[in-house]
């Protein structure tokens, strides 16, 4: 019987000096295995994640950088028409002012030339109408003074049976101040007398230089002063 016990012990017994694993030991081993399988990602996985994150950051940066130039470009594109319109309006105003100034100067010149022509062109047989034409184109003190002497002037012209014919040779603006211009007008005046007239015969053409003061009113321009200049 002792031999049987020894035989059984050699088959089922634990080696000498070795403790049989307990339930606690098995649980610890299971925990270690589970820990290895469920622990943080491996180095390769972490590297892959970092690369993905870097790509996302880089892509976001590119998008931001792309949006800013587009925004600036859109703002600039929107501002260009405004600048063009502003410049065009400014240029149009300058051109309009320049055109207005040119037109006004031309009107001063035209009024002065016509006024000088009226003064130097008077026929004895049409003196009343010719003098009235002078009055219609004049104003201010000159109109009043000429009107007060017009009757005696017409009488002298008729008595002398004289005809004066003016020819404007040159005219230029001397100065312009607000609504008044001073214009120098040069004219050649030829005077003739009908036979039997007080003047007798014809006179050689005379060169006249007149300073015409032209005043702009609300609706027209008038000659307001006339003086001879050397």
Automatic annotation (TrEMBL):
Q: Where in the cell is it found?
A: Membrane
Q: Which UniProt keywords apply?
A: Membrane, Transmembrane, Transmembrane helix
Any keyword Transmembrane? yes
Top-rank taxon:
Bacteria
**Segments passing through the bilayer:** 72-92
Q: Does the keyword Transmembrane belong to this entry?
A: yes
Biased composition annotated in UniProt, kind: Low complexity: 12-36
Q: Where is this region: Disordered?
A: 1-52
What are its GO cellular component terms? membrane
Q: Where are stretches of biased composition, namely Polar residues?
A: 37-47
- Name of the protein this chain belongs to: Mammalian cell entry protein
**Organism of derivation:** Nocardia nova
Lineage here is: Bacteria, Bacillati, Actinomycetota, Actinomycetes, Mycobacteriales
């Amino acid at each position: 019987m002792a031999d049987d016990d020894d035989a059984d012990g050699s088959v089922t017994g634990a080696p000498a000096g070795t403790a049989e694993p307990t339930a606690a030991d098995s649980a610890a081993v299971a925990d270690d295995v589970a820990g290895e399988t469920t622990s943080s990602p491996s180095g390769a996985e972490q590297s892959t994640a970092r690369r993905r994150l870097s790509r996302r950051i880089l892509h976001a940066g590119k998008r931001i950088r792309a949006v800013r130039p587009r925004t600036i470009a859109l703002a600039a594109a929107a501002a260009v028409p405004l600048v063009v319109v502003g410049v065009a309006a400014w240029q149009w105003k300058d051109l309009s002012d320049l055109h207005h100034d040119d037109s006004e100067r031309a009107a001063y010149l035209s009024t002065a030339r016509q006024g000088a022509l009226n003064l130097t062109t008077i026929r004895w047989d049409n003196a009343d109408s010719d003098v009235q034409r002078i009055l219609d184109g004049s104003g201010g003190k000159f109109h009043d003074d000429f009107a007060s002497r017009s009757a005696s002037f017409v009488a002298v012209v008729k008595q002398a049976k004289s005809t004066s014919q003016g020819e404007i040779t040159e005219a230029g603006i001397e100065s312009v101040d607000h609504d008044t211009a001073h214009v120098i007008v040069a004219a050649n005046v030829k005077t003739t007398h009908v036979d039997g007239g007080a003047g007798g015969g014809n006179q050689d053409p005379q060169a006249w230089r007149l300073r015409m003061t032209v005043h702009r009113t609300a609706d027209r321009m008038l000659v307001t002063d006339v003086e001879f200049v050397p």
